[in-house]
């Protein structure tokens, strides 16, 4: 937006009619910079909120115990799981909202199993034994 102002004062003839225009545009630019800064802060906050790698859970991951491999769980996997499939114990990352008989049974293709989900770092350090 450009605003033109001409001086009508007899002591200051309109030598530079763009002087005030420049000041108005400077104020407008300052407002736009503030708006841009606030937008950038908001975007940065949202990115930090949704992309926090520091809050990813760490779990043991292996198909047989004792398990020594430690992994940082990928996005969407916010829990650890220990599954007893009878002949073997499995340790992995898991989605906590899917810690139920149907989801675990379907994933491991088993009707006879036990499992334990937890959300702390390396909390799946022991095989599922049916207690706790």
Automatic annotation (TrEMBL):
<feature type="transmembrane region" description="Helical">
    <location>
        <begin position="36"/>
        <end position="57"/>
    </location>
</feature>
<keyword id="KW-1015">Disulfide bond</keyword>
<dbReference type="Pfam" id="PF25152">
    <property type="entry name" value="CD59"/>
</dbReference>
<dbReference type="InterPro" id="IPR056949">
    <property type="entry name" value="CD59"/>
</dbReference>
<keyword id="KW-0449">Lipoprotein</keyword>
<keyword id="KW-0732">Signal</keyword>
<protein>
    <recommendedName>
        <fullName>Protectin</fullName>
    </recommendedName>
</protein>
<keyword id="KW-0336">GPI-anchor</keyword>
<dbReference type="GO" id="GO:0005576">
    <property type="term" value="C:extracellular region"/>
</dbReference>
<keyword id="KW-0472">Membrane</keyword>
<keyword id="KW-0812">Transmembrane</keyword>
<keyword id="KW-0325">Glycoprotein</keyword>
<keyword id="KW-1133">Transmembrane helix</keyword>
<keyword id="KW-0964">Secreted</keyword>
<dbReference type="InterPro" id="IPR045860">
    <property type="entry name" value="Snake_toxin-like_sf"/>
</dbReference>
<dbReference type="GO" id="GO:0098552">
    <property type="term" value="C:side of membrane"/>
</dbReference>
């Amino acid at each position: 937006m450009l605003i033109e102002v001409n001086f009508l004062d007899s002591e200051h003839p309109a030598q530079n009619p763009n002087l005030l225009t420049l000041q108005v545009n400077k104020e407008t630019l300052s407002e736009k910079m503030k708006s841009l800064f606030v937008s950038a802060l908001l975007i940065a906050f949202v990115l930090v909120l949704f992309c926090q790698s520091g809050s990813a859970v760490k779990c043991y991951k292996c198909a047989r115990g004792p398990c020594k491999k430690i992994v940082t769980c990928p996005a969407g996997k916010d829990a650890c799981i220990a599954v007893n499939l009878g002949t073997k114990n499995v340790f992995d990352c898991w989605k906590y909202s899917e810690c139920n008989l149907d989801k675990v049974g379907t994933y491991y293709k088993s009707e006879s199993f036990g499992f334990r989900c937890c959300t702390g770092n390396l909390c799946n350090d022991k095989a599922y034994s049916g207690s706790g």
